[in-house]
Here is the input.
Amino acid sequence: MPGKQAKTLTDAQTARLLRLARCRRYPERDRVILLLCFKAGLRAGEIAGLTWPMVLDARGRIAPVIALRDCVA
Here is the structure.
């Protein structure tokens, strides 16, 4: 039996969620979590398992890619 097709959010729904995140207690954190989910395709457990070394490059800046370790995925 084939699996169900994943439902995706429209651009309008994504924009609405990002607007709602601005009204929360920690708007910057919530926006980052939503963008990691939408743009990077990370799941909740993967986002929760992220650490700074996975996100930073050798110079200590935010890297263009996330080095997600197997233990998190």
About this structure: The CA atoms of residues 29 and 38 lie 14 Å apart. Helices lie at 11-21, 27-40, 44-48, 52-55. The mean pLDDT is 91.
